[in-house]
Design a protein that fits this description.
The protein has 9 helices and 7 strands, in the order αααβαβαββαβαααββ. It is α/β, with parallel strands linked by helices. It has one domain: Rossmann fold, CATH 3.40.50. Strands 3-2-1-4-5-7-6 form a 7-stranded mixed beta sheet, sandwiched between helices. Helix 2 runs antiparallel to helix 7 and helix 7 packs antiparallel against helix 8. The longest helix has 22 residues. The N and C termini lie far apart (44 Å).
């Protein structure tokens, strides 16, 4: 995909798209990489992404049969893990391509995650896998999750992170910048996997991220680093309105 043609991912000055340009570019990118998205994830992470998703599901701590929303569900990896854990998942994604290649029996809805077709306080939990940096803004997402979750409901949000240890951080940065784009070019789409390492820059600082979750109406907000700090898991509980 030559995303640069429509103001998308590959910008000549090395910058990243913002606002509606970002939304259009991200949707087009995921439509393009959907057919081999799962394969690239497994190769790129050495299978660790499966472990991280299972950790996110375990962190919910909800009763069996709980309704859990998977926002930016992609091809349904988290939906499958939620089902295996005894939950009732529903997936939502902006990319029709990702939904078309989903491998889950859970109901799937094509929609923007900041405008979920869900009644207030209807859901028991919500999860997201490596999607936070792809939203135009995180405040509206957290507000929407607070709207649809009942008091006491739980969220578990996964994304990439930078290790704190200098050597791990340097090695991780080199892998993300140089190896990941080559894997992507070999197995899927070159431009998309050049963009994805750069997209980490969209993530706010840890303090701003956790403060934004709390401001939306959540308590017990925690951040847990996984696999030496190359991934992070944000969990929180919905306060009473």
């Amino acid at each position: 995909m030559n995303a640069g043609r429509d103001g998308g991912l590959a910008q000549g000055d090395g910058g990243l798209p913002q606002g509606e340009a970002k939304a259009r570019a991200v949707r087009a990118m995921f439509d393009t990489i959907a057919p081999r998205y799962d394969l690239v994830n497994r190769v790129m992470t050495g299978g660790l992404d499966r472990r991280w998703r299972r950790a996110a599901v375990r962190s919910l701590g909800l009763s069996s049969g709980s309704l859990v929303l998977d926002v930016a569900c992609g091809t349904g990896d988290l939906c499958r893990d939620l089902t295996a854990a005894g939950y009732a998942p529903v997936g939502f994604d902006l990319s029709r391509g990702m939904l078309a290649h989903a491998r889950t029996a859970a109901p799937l809805v094509h929609t923007d995650a900041v405008q979920l077709p869900v009644a207030p306080h209807r859901a028991d939990g919500a999860v997201s896998g490596f999607a936070l940096r792809n939203f135009v803004a995180l405040g509206p997402l957290f507000d929407e999750l607070a709207r649809v979750l009942r008091p006491g409901g739980r969220i578990a949000l996964l994304d990439v992170a930078n290790p704190a240890h200098p050597l791990l951080r340097a090695g991780h940065a080199a892998y993300f910048r140089h190896v990941v784009p080559r894997i992507g070019a070999l197995l899927s789409d070159r431009d998309a996997y050049r963009y994805l390492p750069k997209s980490v820059a969209y993530l706010p600082s840890t303090s701003d991220l956790l403060d934004s979750v709390a401001t939306a109406g959540f308590e017990a907000v925690e951040r847990r680093l996984l696999s030496g700090g190359i991934a992070q898991l944000i969990t929180a509980t919905r306060c009473s309105p």
